[in-house]
Amino acid sequence: MANLFTRIKNTVLADINEVLDQKEKKNPITLLNQYLRECEAETEKVRKLLERQYQLKEEFTREFNQAQEVAIKRKRQAEIATKAGETELYVFAANEQAQYEERASRLKATLDQTVQQLAELERKYEEMKHKLKDMHIRRMELMGRENVTRANNRMNKVLDNHAYSNESYSRFQEIESYLDRLEHQVNSSYYRNTIDARIAQLEKEMKKEETHSIS
């Protein structure tokens, strides 16, 4: 049964990897965006862990200082009890002093380890942020290259494709012919109106002359 589950798992992973490979071939920037989102999510998780480690460091520091202070206080009290001949108080203070000293020693070791771990986490967190920033820059570079490639392809299609160019040239010719016809119609209408007005004026003047001659 375990072997069956293992084979199923390997088959599913192989299918996923194949899909990702095909996706990367089709659009590498899309896959890069997915990687970026995953890295950003992981970086955010590390940031939260780092904040928690800072809190633990503060808690350990507070507990260590408190244990150390009480140990010093109990030591002084034990010395006072000894001088006063108070054996019972001395025993109690001395036992408390030993317990707090042992606790402070353990807390000091834990605190030192926490500080070292915190420094390592900080180093790795900064490294993750730098890598994430580099990936963002890499994405912008790829997007720029993709944009230039697409622009060049479109321009080459217009400049190098004779069919496309001939079609565009033919369309321009149609527009120019239409404008020529429109201009001719406007000019003809203008000239026709001008001639009609001129003839009408001449007829009017001729009628006036005829009327004056009869008179």
Please outline the helices and strands.
Layout: H1 2-26, H2 28-84, H3 87-160, H4 162-214
Structural class category: mainly alpha
Q: How far is the first residue's CA from the last residue's CA? A: 133 Å
Specify Rg, calculated over alpha carbons.
47 Å
What percent strand? under 5%
Largest sheet: none
Q: What level of helicity do the residues show? A: over 70%
Strand and helix order: HHHH
Residue runs with pLDDT of under 50 for 5 or more positions: none
Query: How many beta-strand runs?
Result: 0
Number of helices: 4
Mean pLDDT over the residues: 78
The backbone outline, from C-alpha atoms, is rod-shaped
Fill in the keyword field for this structure.
single chain, 215 residues, mainly alpha
